[in-house]
Amino acid sequence: MKIAVGVFPQFTALDAIGPYEVLAKLPNAGVDAEVLLCAARQGDVIDENGLLHFNVAHTFDDVPEPDIILVPGGLITRKLIRDSDPIIDWIRAAHPHTTYTTSVCTGALLLAAAGLLDGLRATTHWRAYDVLSSYGAEPTEQRVVHEGKILTAAGVSAGIDLALTLVGHIAGPEIAQGIQLAIEYDPRPPFDAGTPSKAPAEISQRVEAVMAAAEDRLLRTT
Amino acid sequence: MKIAVGVFPQFTALDAIGPYEVLAKLPNAGVDAEVLLCAARQGDVIDENGLLHFNVAHTFDDVPEPDIILVPGGLITRKLIRDSDPIIDWIRAAHPHTTYTTSVCTGALLLAAAGLLDGLRATTHWRAYDVLSSYGAEPTEQRVVHEGKILTAAGVSAGIDLALTLVGHIAGPEIAQGIQLAIEYDPRPPFDAGTPSKAPAEISQRVEAVMAAAEDRLLRTT
Question: What residue of B is the nearest CA neighbor of A54?
């Protein structure tokens, strides 16, 4: 089983690395699975914060028919959909061959732009529900949304929940529980502000303003 | 404020990237902080699964006096402490200058080997309590353990909880809540097997056996 994590310049690292760490444990658990990172071009791919440099070995052309696709997000996704980035063509062409097509955070916008979410329930980062709607999807406030073989996860950290859900489907709940234990995933957030409905209103407003400003800068300058 | 994430070949990617994604949001939240990845040598550092290649720009010598140290773990840490790896010297020399010295997962073994945990409560991945004890630390089954300016986190995914705790200390709870909201950290694990006390006994035994075998291979072959 080939699991392709498709990345792009300025992707959010944790969107990809959370699920990666879960999925990369499948071989040790006795599951015949190969995880690989791929991008439009080989070589240096820098993350959203501009601090991590990933040296990516595979191109999208190297993995035209993966069994599973996982697509992370990032503020830059709004530019990628505006510009019809190559990752969207890859997702569209690969999807008919997958057993699961999945996204984390605003990776869902790339699935939507590839035409995969029209008329379906899906989730994404809470700031991006409107963009999802504009592609005919029905934004759904859940941690992970299943629609047939498409799984979408909420913002950033939700990728870990998505990956464990996915492992439950492809390898069974015992393997998923084993990987959960291996990564000691028994979360204890020190605060309870992980969604707009839980965070104090003034904090939601400040975060929305900060992220909107960062996104505007990005869309203007790239 | 300089925050140095110290890595080494075969580190567990999520140990570092979970907290990284939290801490790298400090500048956008108005906090004067710079996060950087450093290693013994510049260049390619491959993760524990052998699949991710990080191109690391800074050496330990470049950041002798960071304000905050964060050290990830990995099965390889038992070899690093056996061989007195350079990261241990870096931690020992830098610690007197830090405001916080922190570890995720078996990164705590490196703090212990640097002599930082003698007589103190600390936590690590559940499989490594015995090694922590052998350095005079008191293994403590908590998600994040505070001992003065030393914070240690449990296995892998606990780094996110540690980083939000740390942000609460250095920048206040409002900033920490804002970052929690930005990464939509409202975890919903699809299973409840994240610690040995919660996982079914046969799953704990299998994971212990698989990880022990992987560790033995690593210690024999490197």
Answer: B54
